[in-house]
Amino acid sequence: MIKVVILISKADYLAKVELIFMQPVIDPSLPLLSSPEIRRLMEDLEEANIEKDNLMQKCHNLEKKVNLLQEEKSNVITEYEILQKEVMLIFKNVFLKLSKKIQMINFNHAG
Hints:
This protein is mostly helical. It has one domain. Helix content is 79%, strand content 0%. It is built from 2 helices and no strands. It has helices spanning 10-21, 35-110. The radius of gyration is 39 Å and the shape is rod-shaped. It starts with 9 loop residues before the first helix and ends with a helix.
């Protein structure tokens, strides 16, 4: 005869018993709580859930703000690059005009 021993944790055992009888099994190692204590724990849980929902909403709002700021930053960078090209073109034109005037002055003095 072969004997098989299956080891499971206490929590797994209680969960299986719960499934079999379809009723919650109270872990005897847990302290028993009175109705006011249970009520207080439920109130604390409700407050925690409300706080969690508020924080989730704040996170969502901040994510939207970050996305808008990133888009604005991208637009500002693009505008800056366009303006930088325009400034360089203006400097180039001014430089060419000054070069021509200097050449004319040098030509007039040489001749």
